[in-house]
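hi! just following up on the protien thing from before. the input was this:
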Amino acid sequence: MTKASEGGIARASYQMDVNHLYGDDVQQDYNLASAYFERAIEQGH
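and the predicted 3d structure came back as:
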């Protein structure tokens, strides 16, 4: 999912945001969640 996000896939960036926000399958990290959320916005999600 990280590579997809870095490759410009907005849905992947948004999903990584949600995963880090709620701690789904990854350690909860609000800073990373925010970064992925901003990336998703920049990618048009």
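The mean pLDDT is 92.
The chain has one domain: 2-42.
cheers
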